[in-house]
Amino acid sequence: MLSQVILATLTDPYFILLAALGAFIGICFGAIPGLNTPVAIALVLPITYSLNLNHTLALIMGIFMGGISGGLISAILLKLPGTAAAIATCLDGYPMTAKGQAAEAMAIGTFASFFGGIFSAIILIVATPALSRFALSFGPWEYFGAIFLACTLVCTLCDGSFLKGMIATCIGILLATVGLSPIDGQSHRMTFGWSELNSGFSLIIVVIGVFAFTELIRSTNRLKEEKTINSYEKKLFYFPNWKRMWRQKWNLVRSSILGTFIGVLPGIGATEAGMFSYAQAKRFSKHPELFGTGIDDGVVASEAANNAVTGGALVPTLSLSVPGDPSTAVILSALTIQGLQCGPMLVIQHQDIFYTVIIAVLLANIFMYVIQACSIRFVVKIIEVPLYYLVPAVVLFCAVGAYTINNRSFDLLSLLLFIVIGWILADNQYPTMPLIIGFTLGSMLEVYYRRTLSYYGDLPHALISPSFGTVLVAIGILFPIINMLLDRRLARKKAQEQENAD
Questions:
Q1: Is 361 a residue whose pLDDT tops 80?
Q2: Is the dihedral of CA 491, 497, 501, 502 positive or negative?
């Protein structure tokens, strides 16, 4: 089976071309501050209507892999992360540029991205089939427990307070209930007599409104800022110094493991992976005082971890149909458009599709590395485009993408609603990631909850049942409680230390 899929994909020129094109698009979107990977994937979804499943996988996986890595370009050159995942890269990447080592920093960061992506792809090959076989024993209560745990993890581990994360998640779940009931298909919920709302809101419109336009509105405050031009050595291909990279071998492996593990946990994402890995690299370093002054360790830790998230996030997406981050939430939507239902049976009954995903991921990482290494000096020119040219073009692009999903003007009104919601949340320091994850998981949470009630009769009987679902629900309840208690203890400790210092 595997040999047949390899032969079919690698001898298909369109598959290879779309993987390369996707990697290039992802790098461009990642390099431009204010854009991100979910938006890039969402905007190409209308194109996938005319593609078959294999070609869709090649294009989307290319964007996914390239989008995370592309953020290092502006992070290193301008101290302005193209994506939130590259925030930690700024800490040592830009100081290296200030010391005249921009080319070296980008070469090191690109190789670390490639290593992390390939490492996580290997974990994807190993972990997904095992998790899928385990998930075959899941009933509605177990699936409800897994989704409930994902929602609480999002609230607890995302940026900001737990309360704000919970509110954002609940808003997402509430928005997911708009339309016809998923169980009987007859009950109209919050449609207000509008037939256009019978099918609910589109995930792509939610992502574009909440993510893209929020950043675009923020960027209008910098319209008159002058662009910083950095000089760097022009090469055809940027190879890292292998002696310097060999000294980073354990940092590469540790950061890739951390990034992959964090990617598997739903809702945490590449930003947290990069920051956590950076902190661990500093902790294990013999010279922690040098972090932030422009050393290889910080760039390697951040880029290896945030790119390792890609393969890790695909594990629950493919095996449980539970997206690991906003990007995989949009990927899940793209696969649904193609008529593909993710879950444990995907890996077991459709091994050809699973192997195609693996090959697409591996190819995308290779193309991401080659394109990054060859064209850094060209891609960086995109960042120099004045924002007063870039913002209107992106607004038009997003609006056209939202309209072409269903070819109806009502979707533009929906987009306006989510722009307002996203701006209000961001302006009040509410994390937007929980809203996206809550919206994605909301309908499934309701379906499995109602199926659980049908099976057990009521919730108390489900809670006392000796099943893995009860364990998952218990963890989902206890984890945020323990996290809040630890936060309070840490706050009291800091207050006491401040008192003693005064």
A1: yes
A2: positive
